[in-house]
Each structure stands twice: as structure tokens, then as C-alpha cells.
Specification:
Number of helices: 4
Oligomer: single chain
Number of strands: 13
Radius of gyration: 18 Å
Number of domains: 1
């Protein structure tokens, strides 16, 4: 039987963003400045890596993983600030450092709220063959928010990662959400004038779709 690629997401995620028109095709890394980082922080090492493109370095999923937004498009995190009209210069834009800190208290709650709100907003944009079921699910999310938030506060770690760049000292903020049971399952970063929520999913190859 022909093998079918089955994407098993670590969590149910809803996305609604515009795909970046720029194609960040990977090229060999050559003549990088000595201060350029070539590895992501330990927190991301199992699921992500740094690659080189005609527009500079970017962070992308490691082989066997997928960072989806818009349900299909993979999210790429470039070192260059401008993601709409990036400058084509392979070795001009690169990561110079990463600073990672786990959040707690009110700061952790702030970004858990952001995660919840973004999922709710994106859920509202999704179509459903039965609108009444969709509306009931939304009401449930709103009614039971305190219960969900208490569960997230207990079971989810939130990390703030700052990716420093050679692009005039540009710093890109990335928030990473780690489940006690499933590891990293969400990422949130600001690109193209909007907060982009993306999933962190393992790609699993099976012989058939589960019935």
C-alpha cells in the first residue's frame, strides 16, 4: 500500500493569516561572519534550526517537524526585520544572539491570555457546516474560560525568546508555549504588523489514515 503522509498536530490550532509572498529558499551557508549564530537555543533545538537563504538567516522547523499557520503554510522566522519587502543579501542579515527566559506570575498570565484570545479570534474566522455547533463551542470557550486558564497556568510553561539580529540591532520577540505532556506546541511572534500564532507539530508517516 502506498504510504500516506499524515500530519498529526500536537494540538488543535486555528490560523488565519496571509502567506508571505517572498520565497525563502534554503541555500548553503557560506562566508558567514564569525558572530553569526548557527544553532537555535536548547529550548528549540529538538524542533527547529537555523538555515541560510538569499535574504539572510532564518529559523525554520527541523526535519520531521512543521510550524504551520493558515493551516498549510509553514512559518519561517527571518533575521531580517522587513518581511514584506526584504533585501536580497545572503550574509548581511543573521542572528547574533538569543536570550531565553521562562515567564511567571502576571507576565506569564498576560501571554497565556494572548494565546487564548488569539485562538478564540481565529476560531471565529473558521467556517463550520453547522453554525449552531460552532456558536455553542464559542459560548463554551467564553463561559469556561476561568477553568481553561487555570489549567493552562498549571500545565503550560511560557518562554520569552529574543532573537537579536545584525539588522541594525533588531530584536524579534518570540513566545513559546510548552505543555508538560507534549513539549512545545505553540509559538507566537510579531511579523508584518501582526502577531502570528503558529503550531509546532511532529510529522508522522503512517501506512493509512486512522478510521
Amino acid at each position: 500500500m502506498a504510504r500516506i503522509l499524515f500530519l498529526a498536530l500536537a494540538a488543535v490550532v486555528f490560523f488565519c493569516t496571509n502567506a508571505n509572498a517572498v520565497v525563502y529558499n534554503v541555500i548553503p551557508c557560506k562566508n558567514l561572519p564569525p558572530e553569526a549564530k548557527t544553532e537555535v537555543p536548547d529550548l528549540l533545538a529538538a524542533v527547529g534550526k537555523i538555515s541560510c537563504t538569499p535574504y539572510g538567516q532564518m529559523m525554520e522547523p527541523r526535519t520531521g517537524y512543521w510550524w504551520p499557520y493558515n493551516n498549510i503554510q509553514p512559518v519561517l522566522i527571518p533575521a531580517q526585520k522587513d518581511t514584506r519587502n526584504p533585501e536580497r543579501s545572503p550574509n548581511k542579515f543573521y542572528f547574533t544572539d538569543f536570550v531565553v527566559a521562562e515567564l511567571s506570575g502576571d507576565e506569564k498570565q498576560k501571554w497565556l491570555d494572548m494565546l487564548y484570545d488569539r485562538n478564540l479570534e481565529l476560531y471565529e474566522t473558521m467556517s463550520h457546516k453547522n453554525p449552531s455547533i460552532k456558536e455553542k463551542a464559542k459560548e463554551d470557550m467564553l463561559k469556561n474560560r476561568p477553568v481553561y486558564m487555570a489549567k493552562l497556568q498549571k500545565e503550560m510553561q511560557v518562554f520569552h525568546m529574543v532573537a537579536l539580529s545584525s539588522d541594525n540591532g533588531f530584536e524579534r520577540d518570540i513566545y513559546l508555549y510548552k505543555s508538560q505532556e507534549e513539549g512545545l506546541i505553540y509559538g507566537l511572534t510579531y511579523m508584518a504588523d501582526n502577531w502570528r500564532l503558529f503550531g509546532i507539530a511532529r510529522i508522522v508517516i503512517v501506512d493509512h489514515f486512522p478510521l
